[in-house]
Amino acid sequence: MEIIQLIATTSIIVSGILLVGFLNKRFNLGIEDTSSEFWVGASYKNQVKDSVEKDELIQSLSARVQVLEQLITDPKEQLRREIDRL
Questions:
Q1: Whole-angstrom Cα distance, residue 51 to residue 27?
Q2: What does the DSSP assignment read for 41-66?
Q3: Where are the domains of the chain?
Q4: Backbone torsion region of residue 28, taken as left when φ is above 0, otherwise alpha when ψ lies between -120 and 50, otherwise beta
Q5: Alpha-carbon distances of 1 from 8, 50, 63, 64, rounded to whole Å
Q6: Are the C-beta atoms of 9 and 16 separated by less than 8 Å?
Q7: Which pLDDT does position 36 carry in this prediction?
Q8: What does each of the 86 residues of the chain score in pLDDT, given as a tens digit?
């Protein structure tokens, strides 16, 4: 009876681990440990790349907003000069 219980317990644990792994991959839960090279896969590298691209886009858009704010808050004459110069 002990062997059957041991096999059943092991089967439940392995099934649980496989289910968590499947759900992690399916729904991108980010459960993996990123400090271990074993778990660092292409999806983590893609997330880092996407994060860097988003940061660059945010910086670019922030610079554009600053220019627009300067153009909007300037007096009318100075604004006309800036537009003509562009």
A1: 18
A2: -HHHHHHHHHHHHHHHHHHHHHHHHH
A3: 1-31, 34-86
A4: left
A5: 11, 53, 71, 72
A6: no
A7: 53
A8: 688 999 999 999 999 999 998 998 888 887 765 555 555 566 667 777 888 899 999 999 999 999 888 777 767 767 777 788 87
Structure-token match 């459960």, residue found:
31
Residue 70's pLDDT is 79
Backbone angles phi, psi at 39, to 5 degrees: -90, -20
- Backbone phi, then psi, for 24, in 5-degree steps? -65, -45
The total number of residues shown for the chain amounts to 86
Residue whose C-alpha is closest to residue 86's, from 65, 66, 69, 71: 71
d(CA 9, CA 81): 79
